[in-house]
Amino acid sequence: MSTTEDHDLKHRFAEYSSTTSTPDEAFALFEEARGRCPVPHTETGGGFYLVLDYEDAKAVHADAERFSNVPGIMRPVADRPQLPPLEYDAPEHKHWRSLFTEAANPQTPARIEGAVRADVARLIDAFASTGSCDLVEEFAVPIPLYALCHMLGLETARAAEFRRLAEAFIEGFNDVEKGPIAIGALMEYGNMLVAERQANPREDYLTWLGTAEFDGRPVGPMEIGLVMVGLLVAGHDTSVSGLTSCLYEVLSRPDIKQQLLDDPSLIPAAVDEALRLHPPFIGFFRRATEAVNLGGTQIPADASLQIVWAAANRDPKVFEDPEEVRLDRKPGRNRHLTFGFGAHACVGQPTARMEMRIALEEILRRLPDIHLVDPDSVKYEFLGSEAQAITKLAARFTPES
Ligand code: HEM
């Protein structure tokens, strides 16, 4: 590669931002940098380094002392409360994380799988006789919302009020005026739910949260409110986007779909491949607490870095045929970083994987000829805060009689 070409690449990275590119453009730029410039720098968003190489990305995740989550994992750093547990370092991180692992842990899928399967069946019932649907709005959006209700112990009949608050919250996330109001409303809602359980205890997470301890003292309204916000930020849109990607990858590839119809035990492998190729957030940020050399680039103390899971997950040094959906990449051995790694690794990953598996199992069983109306026109969009998703996925099928 000539010096002029390297200079041109650096120049394009200097101007790179997810607010001005499409995911396709961003992925193409990351690929160009592969092996040439593993830790490029952009001047946008206050200036940050992009960690593209898989081993570098994993090393940043593994070293929570040199790569801090404070003041935040999104850029620019907004005037809002730090989101627990993601935006805390040790030792506070441990106290916060323990409030979340009670709701989402390796036992959660077994506890709520039956309820999730019933939700999925009900959602399919609602459109099965029509012959068409939008798989995002009518399927992928409600499934994780109901699953969150089951995790908390909230009746799904109340999912609509939860969803209204969640939508206002997501809409206002980057808005200086609407944002704090929406966060406040959600925190208040969480406290109201816990107060209901304090009056009428049940065997559920909301009841537990009202009696939990935080760093050796009873949990307070601020912590309860922020747990509600944290669960929603971490668990809802991520799962909607992940589930949509699973549906898109399977339904746009007839060979893969046929293999799953013939052998549903391959569904978990397909889920992990869709997540590998399309992380719902392309990457979150860290702050270097000291000067450090990463992939040959000298990073100064206090610099911002984005761990770009989207690029690391297609690193050919780790994934053979990285652009392909390969069902022989077994779930347990698929080393993608879509759920993070290390101290902050996703506590909801077993539950998210279960939701996607059930959704695929049921839709392929009930509507085996389901297909996308126009797969070639489907596009990923950046939705702010490094989130990427497909927002509409029209499908047709033979109506159920
Ligand atoms: C496809 C769905 C999901 C994806 C792709 C995803 C992805 C991630 C990633 C990448 C992280 C680590 C971020 C970092 O290190 O900067 C994370 C953390 C977290 N996730 Fe998920 N997540 C998903 C679903 C869920 C669900 C369903 C829940 C629970 C309801 C959840 C709860 C959390 C929590 C609480 C953390 C913070 C852990 C900590 O800071 O210690 N996630 N998630």
What's this entry about, in short?
The chain is α+β, with helices and mostly antiparallel strands and 401 residues long. It has helices at residues 3-14, 23-33, 54-62, 92-101, 108-128, 136-140, 142-152, 159-171, 178-199, 205-211, 221-235, 237-251, 254-262, 267-277, 309-312, 349-366, and strands at 41-42, 48-51, 67-68, 132-134, 213-214, 217-218, 283-288, 292-294, 297-299, 304-308, 371-372, 381-382, 388-389, 394-396.
Write the layout of secondary structure elements.
Blueprint: H1 3-14, H2 23-33, E1 41-42, E2 48-51, H3 54-62, E3 67-68, H4 92-101, H5 108-128, E4 132-134, H6 136-140, H7 142-152, H8 159-171, H9 178-199, H10 205-211, E5 213-214, E6 217-218, H11 221-235, H12 237-251, H13 254-262, H14 267-277, E7 283-288, E8 292-294, E9 297-299, E10 304-308, H15 309-312, H16 349-366, E11 371-372, E12 381-382, E13 388-389, E14 394-396
Parallel strand pairs: 2-10
Antiparallel strand pairs: 1-2, 3-7, 4-14, 5-6, 7-10, 8-9, 11-14, 12-13
Helix pairs in contact: 5-7, 5-16, 8-9, 9-10, 9-11, 12-14, 12-16, 14-16
Bound molecules: protoporphyrin IX containing FE.
Description:
A five-stranded mixed beta sheet has the order 1-2-10-7-3. Strands 4-14-11 form a three-stranded antiparallel beta sheet. It has helices spanning 3-14, 23-33, 54-62, 92-101, 108-128, 136-140, 142-152, 159-171, 178-199, 205-211, 221-235, 237-251, 254-262, 267-277, 309-312, 349-366; strands at 41-42, 48-51, 67-68, 132-134, 213-214, 217-218, 283-288, 292-294, 297-299, 304-308, 371-372, 381-382, 388-389, 394-396. The radius of gyration is 21 Å and the shape is globular. With 401 residues, it is α+β, with helices and mostly antiparallel strands. It has a single domain, classed as Cytochrome P450 (Cytochrome p450, Orthogonal Bundle), CATH 1.10.630. Residues 73, 85-86, 97, 100, 104, 148, 151, 230-231, 234-235, 238-239, 242, 280, 284, 338-340, 344, 346-348, 351-352 line the site of protoporphyrin IX containing FE.
